[in-house]
Amino acid sequence: LQGFNGTIFAYGQTGSGKTFTITGGAERYADRGIIPRTISYIFSQTAKQHDTNFRVSVSYLELYNDSGYDLLDENHSTKRLQDLPKVHLRENNEGQMMLSGLSVHNASTEEDALNLLFIGDTNRVVSETPMNDASTRSHCIFIVQVEAQKGGSDVKTVSRLHLVDLSGSERIARTGVDGTLLKEACSINTTLHFLGQVIECLHKKAHGENIHIPYRNSMLTLLLRDSLGGNCKTVLIATISALQADMGESISTCRFASQVAMIKN
pTM higher than 0.85 for the full model? Predict the structure, then answer.
């Protein structure tokens, strides 16, 4: 609301509660996740600032097997993911990454924004795996854009908040998945590996090392480039499992979180 870009993303192994943290549960109001709570906060705060005109818009992007899809297609009846419009990343003359094919929807009220969230969640790819009965098989990014202009002023601020639900890492040897689930797991693990590489390089750069940051290895890391190493306020939520059998993944998640904490934008 003050013109800063922001990102909140959840990271952790499959079944550790990332999607519940970001989007929440559907049964109880108290189980709302970060996205519906953020939407509620934005509209409650804009209603208090009578001297400023606000315009709120929403987009919802899904990255499945390193391809982007628009979850808020105008013809949003339940369908296969492959039937949704594809989204492509393009770089403009100023070096900024632009999302081509991603629709932007105006949200005049909190209810409008929550309805868009519901539509997008309905179109997400979810499968049952040995580790999770309702495993999200893709990375999803809910984007809220806020335009603010004070009355009588020609200055307009535009800020974006990215709320990211990363799909969980899983050890294929342990889960024993095959077919489509195996292909999805390989893609998820590969993109998370590239994200880990970017975090490691940014960590080294924060300690004074002159190093190339491999953002272009995947669509996910390109999308998160400004969030991780640019002009943005970023928060990571690390979700871990309390099970003894998941100790290795939990330690790996904590190491990842500690490296992210060392990055300075």
Answer: no
